[in-house]
Protein 1
Amino acid sequence: MDSPQTLRTLGALRAAVASGAVLRRTVKDEIRQNLMRSLRAGDTVFPGIVGYDDTVIPQLFNAILSRHNFILLGLRGQAKSRILRGLGGLLDEVIPIVPGCEINDDPLAPICSACRARIALEGDATPVAWLRRESRYVEKLATPDVTIADIVGDIDPIKAARGGLHLSSEMTMHYGLLPRANRGVFAINELPDLAGKIQVGLFNILQEGDVQIKGYPVRLPLDVMLVFTANPEDYTARGKIITPLKDRIGSEIRTHYPATRQGAMVITVQEAWLDRRDDGMSVKVPTYVREAVEEIAFQAREDKKIDKRSGVSQRMPISSLENVVSNAERRALAAGESVAVPRVTDIYAALPSMTGKFELEYEGELKGAESVARELVRAAVANVFTGYVESANTAKVVGWFDSGGSLQLGDMAAASEVIEQAKKVPGLLELARQAVAGPSAPAPETAAAVDFVLEGLYSLKKVARSDERGYHSVEQRPGPRRPVRQAEEDFDEDVPQGRKKYYN
């Protein structure tokens, strides 16, 4: 038989089902069997999901094969919503429905009164429509103001008056999101934010197939897979999942952040907007810059000044890398260069994309979000730098600064200017080319490598740097040093506390 969408009447559909040309099954069986076929064929079931192959994905497969409703527990930015949306790919391409039905009724087993009455009247001549898989995934973000009418439905008095119906009739019901997801997947994000009485309506209609609307019992034996997401902290603090609903959720699957820097880089490159070719400009992001951006998130997740309960989303390195590239573009445009190569110092220009991505503990609040972010960048660069450059190889460069040398580089300096300045420092250009860029690297890449070496030495506290990008010895101090005075003079009791004199 050709595509099932050629079937246009209930009679033709009955014949196709009887011959086996069209399968008739529940949503959970449909998803289960399609998953089995994909696994047998070796297909990628959830494209774009990275780092979960040995942890989350096997548990997810087990839940689907068990025909469970399930919940994904994880901190923000752990691809929970993306996984749920991927369930739509396990649905059949099309399914038959009664045309015009708000709840996608099965023509062979309708559950709403209107469809049953229509089929009883028209018989095998009843028209059949086909619903595509994209329309069978319904998602709702739970908020405290969501009502039972939003989720399940409500009585429509106008419909009752026009049809001369009693208010307790199913024909008077205006369906909510859950019934409209019938024969599909219904996802609720941030489940603990949903009011307890709404959660009661969910488990009741799923388990017993009935619900009370304005005091009237309504039978709705829905065919739906129900899936949820929640933050583990919200699970017990901001809200809670009522016990009867938790009991009816078959599997609880915990997500996590990427375990390795390389895995995180794959996610960031996949999600970040880096393909910029406007006005003939091209972008080439060095690997060490990608690593440094990614390492910031890893450092933040371990930093005591950052609230671990709220997490540090993978969106932070994604947004940061986009800002880093934009700053490199801006510099290349000003310098008339055709290739934008981001430098490590461009990461500091991306601080606005970081400070809103983490919550601070009390100690962090005292320092301020920007100061904490700068510390994270410095720690990340130091960590990455030690993987590229051995400490012994930096002695010649550090020695030049220790002997009184200084180097001034602007954030907007062109690649040629950076290279010319680097020639003043014995061994700097050679170290940058040998460790990072390569001997025949173009000027923008060589300049970025020089910047990486200088910032790496600064991050390891082997050289000092001013806010104006002046590199000098860690022993140097701007301006003349002031003598140390006696403690009695510095802390004279007659001097107001706000005007005590401190000397270095």
Protein 2
Amino acid sequence: MAEAVATLPKVRRPANSWEIWGRLLVVPYLLIFVIFVVYPVGYGLYLARDPQNYVRLFDDPIFFRTAINTLVFVVVAVNLKMIIALGLSGFFAQTRWWINIVALLFILPWAVPSIPTILSVRFMFNSEWGVINTLIFKLTLKDGPNWLNDPTIALGLSMMMHIWKSLPFWTLILLAGRLAIPSEQYEAASVDGATRWQKFRFITWPSMKGLYLTSTILSMIFTLGDFNSVYLLTGGGPADLTHVLATLGIRYLRLDQIELAMASIVVALPFVLPLVYVMMKRLSK
């Protein structure tokens, strides 16, 4: 009898009015997702479908220089930024009255728009009339360096620009992790005579290691898509030697090579997808 009941087909109950309205209200969001996400991505993959596009892309010496720039940019900028953010999170965790004032000034680079601030820095480093070289000439009676005309210096300044803009955000994330550590652990360590380094090594770092690693992976994903820091400061120059994958597509668009622009975006996926996979694995735990 029980087996007969188990084999009976399940009867679906009709949806009530609330469920119908709920499904109808989801439809506009699905349309927005299809129009502004699925269609552009699908159309871009369609344009880059020809294997000859990738052959032409790999034959372009600027592409390999861009891939190296991207790797250096991500490895150096992200790790330097996160190490500084970890140290600054300890500084801002202090309870002194003036810390709040410093924190307000510190967060301004992240809060203000990117375009005017980065363009202002670009004007400051102009080799002919920028304020930096003007001060150097007044102090030393010598012309300053051509900051943005040297590929190595220009890429380094782009990384500094990226760190300056995004450092406050990651400092706040790590500061929240520090403040979540019970103060009783530090008090007990002080009673036992632990030094600051010992407190960091045995209390702070074990408690924040997961947050730090997750933030680093997420920062790598964001950095791979950072367009403003390079394009607004150097424009990919001089001679297209400071491009990263986030800005290379603009170069091909300006040369009216749309297929290569889409292909340059597609080849960035092997950099991004492993980071997204590791990120989702960490979040699933």
Protein 3
Amino acid sequence: MGRWSRNGIVLYALFTTVLVMHTDLVSEEGSPAKFAVFSQRPLTCGAHRGGKSLWPESTVLAYTSAAAKWPDILLEGDVQLTADGKVVLLHDGTVDRTTNGTGRIADLTLEQVKALDAGYRFTPDGGTTFPYRGKGITIPLFSEVLDAIPDGRLLIEIKERPGIADAAVAVLRDKKALGRVVLASMDSDAMNQARRIEPRLLACYTVPEGTEMIAQLRGVDWAKYKPVAEMLAIDHHNVEEFSLKPEEIRAIRDKGICVLVYTINDTDLMRRYLDMGVSSILTDRPDVLQDMVMQRQPAPH
């Protein structure tokens, strides 16, 4: 995730985010109604890279395991292009940290990428064991993840690479997944391109849009403010920097804007943001957050 500062350098737009609805559910009457469909189920718990502390990150195994355990989970990941233009799920620019290979993803063909072991470096105990080595876990195609969790909602960040916006949108259209995927990017040009080629996309605030929205929130004309996007994602350090108050988060949400904070692994911070009333929290430990959410629900009568 990126960060955003008072001068607008790091306002992360969900991350400059785009939220997308099923083609058979999308109306052309405006994004608030479309986002209401996306958010019918709770968005509180978000699994960063599928829950990177629990399973090999950004893999089909991670996403299917999280979705099976928590059907309402919001699943996050990052898309990049291989040398031959295939859209794959991977956070880093190289394969070194998460696989048994080396090199930039942009320099490897899909065939080369698929030959790597994406479970090779995952360890739940600080390097004592590596339970997923040699299990056939690979870096997945974006389309493979969508196929594996047909009812899942995903939050997907577009990494900076020419052509990535067009390629990612093409996959969403092909898989009829526009209704359940959130696209995101730190690259405003990529985000704007995605919006141009697919007007049905729901958008998160870009850096300038988010900066202006915060200014309007603290100005005299907030009542007249019309949202220009559906979601705002913000790094928890920036919540401190901007001194966002619970009443301000509530005011943003009252405008129909979803507020997501990331990436929170500390339990005290989880409690704090739940108390502040954010819409969603992204974490490497969705098991911990989900338990906390369940404990806070009122007991049935």
Protein 4
Amino acid sequence: MAASQLVKKGITLEVTDLDRLPSHLQRGHRAVVADALALPFRDESFDLVSCSLFAHHLAPAELARFVNEAARVCRCAVLINDLIRHPLHLALVYAGFPLMQSPVSRFDGVASVRRAYVPEEMRHMLSNGRKPPRRIEISTHYLFRMGVIVWKNTG
């Protein structure tokens, strides 16, 4: 749902973008240059923390650390949108090579799919050893995408 549609429902969005590289930050939002593994915000600063197509760049321990940091600074939930590792997904990336203009895109596409997680791995990494355990919802979507909601523990 677009921000303009949310405004019609009485919901306003205040977006804060974060990246280690200033060149990756969008114009028009509050932008912070920082490390996602050490978020420079106080506890419960945001309703939601979201990451899109970022989780597969993190090793399992780093992903768990990111989610712990994101859970610290959010009030409700951490949202993750990412790739799913699958042989057919990798084949589609190779099939798309003729459309890719840059060798960097070819390398990154292959590396991203190979490093991506499957839903079972994601659930294990995000819940392993947590006391109390977190409520985690994972859904899969068209073209090898997954959505993850890590609900903030309230007690």
